[in-house]
Sequence to fold (164 residues):
Amino acid sequence: MFKNLFKKGDSKTEIYTPVNGEIVQLEEVPDPVFSQKMMGDGVAVKPAEGKIYAPIDGEIIQIPETKHAIGLRAKDGTEVLVHIGLETVSLEGKGFTASVSIGDQVSIGQPLMDFDLEYIRNNASSDMTPIVITNAQETGKQYTMTEEKEGKASETVIITASDK
Fold:
């Protein structure tokens, strides 16, 4: 009678879109590293503006010198990579301005990075921005991707992580 009373409840982590724009399935990203999920599973967004916001409450764990990506770790251990555009590492940081540093604690919706969307569209292979879980095999969680087609930064849940 009381066995469910003390049962640990399912914990869920919701990952919000970090940028306003059209949500695209990862398989449609024109880069095999992402479309074949070599970096991990997730979704992508075709950005409508050049602003990245925190998709989770957590810690900044990676910002390459080229500032083309941001890695975050949620409180449940899920690691999220926001990769701004494709082949943007070759831009060597031009067009990107980070407003956070490695080790910073961030909250959903907090501004993380500004980027020059037009510059990326003109100088990179694509502005498509993949958002992937880089450590899904290690967390023991199940990840569900959204069916939504349009994302509003910090409002639209794009990935839900739950206990298996």
